Each structure stands twice: as structure tokens, then as C-alpha cells.
Amino acid sequence: MSDSRPIGVFDSGLGGLTVVKELNRLLPKEDIVYFGDTGRVPYGNRSENTIKRYAREDENFLLSQDVKIIIAACGTVSSVASDVSSELTIPFFEVVSHASHEAVRVTRNKKIGVIGTAATIKSGKHKEYISVLLPKARVIGQSCPLFVPLVEEGWYNANDVVVKETVNRYLTPFINEEIDTLILGCTHYPVLSEAISSVLGEGVTLVNAGTATAKAVFEFLKTKDMLSNKEKGENQFYVSDKADSFRTQASILLGDELDDNKVRLVSLSSL
Questions:
Q1: Using an 8 Å Cβ cutoff, are 97 and 127 in contact?
Q2: Peptide bond into 42 cis (omega under 30)
Q3: Start-to-end Cα distance in the chain
């Protein structure tokens, strides 16, 4: 059996493209429908109720596209609003649990750092998962609220003075903690991996939530006989604002020039 319906992915903006990139690599035959809520980014400084409302609206849009599963490619939604998924009638994936599992697998000294939006760090979800899997682990969290705006503006070159200074200010405290593993708890953050590694050093393993989640999705679809049998899958992107800006940055991040018809603007009132 097979299922040719697309995979649905949503995020507050560009960050979820790091998940799409991994899905394209692992599941090249799958169609993907992506919704980036660029009109309301970032989610990380919103109230819990607002984040849940946004998540529900994002999921409803993807359901209208007849997707077979939904991935919340957003650390904030995964941390504080994943319970909204209980209303869904199709499988749902978040990024927090999969990133936590991967961090436990790769850590050597049981000292794990987590960076994310203010809402993600406040939720403590990564620590909850890790504490169950590895009770003796020490988990240190740090919110990095300026990382998302940097990525959304296209400022992620490791040599950029603004990027270097911002990353250094947020991450220097981890050096004294002697962590050997860092969870990139927001899907925007892998875009800053080079800058992050330049501060923490090569001895710290960076856990990309997108990679971990894509692997879980692959195994699930394979086990459930839901893989597409198309010769080659296609990506379709929808955004709530700034379609041209999204198209430019997405082309860079995905390494593939997107045509105008691949990025469509969706009115928030229609969600």
C-alpha cells in the first residue's frame, strides 16, 4: 500500500524549512505542503493561549490541503501547544520529544544545553523528556529571543559582526557549564549552526530537531505503509505575509531556486 497525500508542515516563519530540508533528503518521493506564519512571527513571545490559537489555525489550514500527517516544525508550539493536536484525526508530530531522545543518545557527560524561545525554555518540556530518559542528566536552558529575528531577516552568516556578538552573548554561559550536547530547540536555530559552533567549539554536539523529527516521520510512514510511491515529490509553500522575502530566503536555505508559483500568500482570515 501507499499514500500519495502530502505531508503537512507548519512553523511561525522560515525555521520549519530546516525540517523540510531533512524530509526532502530522507523522503524524496513525498509531496510537502508547508505553511509559514510570517505575518505573526515570532510565536515565542506570545501567551500560551495565543500560541494555541495560532497552532489550531495553522493545523486547520493544512487539513484543508488534505495532508496525511501534520508536523509542528516549531519548538514553541511543540513545547506549549502540542495538546491542540488531540483534536486532529490524522497523525501529529512535534519536535521536542525527538530532539530530546537524540540528545540523550549522543551525550557523553550527561550535561545537555537547550536553547529556544522564551516560551520553549519556560515550558521545561525538553528537561521533562530528558529526565525520564536519563534521570542523572543535567539540563541547562537558555532563551535566545533575538535568534529568530536574525534568521527571518537573513542575518545568519557566522562572520557577520551582529550575528557573532548576539550568539556570543547568549551562549557564553554554556562554556562554564561544560555541556557536551546542545539542543537547538527552535527550528530557526540550525541556520545559525556555524556561528553557534564557533562559540561553543567542536566538542559540543549540536542536535538539530529537524533531523531527529524527519527520521521519526520516515520510520512511522514506513511502518504504517503510508509512503508515497511517486517518482519525485514536490514542495508547495504558503505564507501569511511577505511572500517575496520568504521566497528569497527559502531558496537560499533549501539550496533550490523557488519559482513564484511555489510560494503563495494566504489571507489570515481564511485560516
A1: no
A2: yes
A3: 32
Bridge pairing between strands 32-36 and 69-72: unpaired
Residue 186 annotated in active site: yes
Position 183 confidence tier, pLDDT thresholds 50, 70, 90 = very high
Instruction: Report yes or no: 214 and 12 within 8 Å, Cβ to Cβ.
Output: no
Query: Which residue of the set 7, 119, 144, 186 is catalytic?
Result: 186
- Read off the DSSP letter of residue 268: G
For residue range 71-126, what is the model confidence (pLDDT) as tens digits?
Answer: 999 999 999 999 999 989 999 999 999 999 999 999 999 999 999 999 999 999 99
Sign of the torsion angle spanned by Cα atoms 159, 160, 163, 169: positive
Q: How far apart are CA 27 and CA 41, in angstroms?
A: 28
One DSSP character per residue, 205-240 reads: EEEEHHHHHHHHHHHHHHHTT-----SS--EEEEES
Ordered by where they begin, the domains of the chain are 7-94+211-270 (3.40.50.1860), 96-209 (3.40.50.1860)
CA atoms of 123 and 12, how far apart (whole Å): 18
Check if the beta carbon of residue 89 is closer than 8 Å to that of residue 118. no
How many residues are listed for the chain in this entry? 271
pLDDT greater than 80 at residue 32? yes
Phi/psi for 9 (5° steps) reads -135, 135
- Compute the average pLDDT of residues 178-204: 96
Which amino acid makes up residue 230? K
What is the radius of gyration, based on Cα positions, of the chain? Answer: 18
The x, y and z cell numbers of residue 50, run together, are 495565543
Catalytic residue among 72, 74, 184, 195: 74
Is the four-CA dihedral 220, 52, 166, 177 of positive or negative sign? Answer: negative
Q: Is 144 noted as a catalytic residue in this protein?
A: no
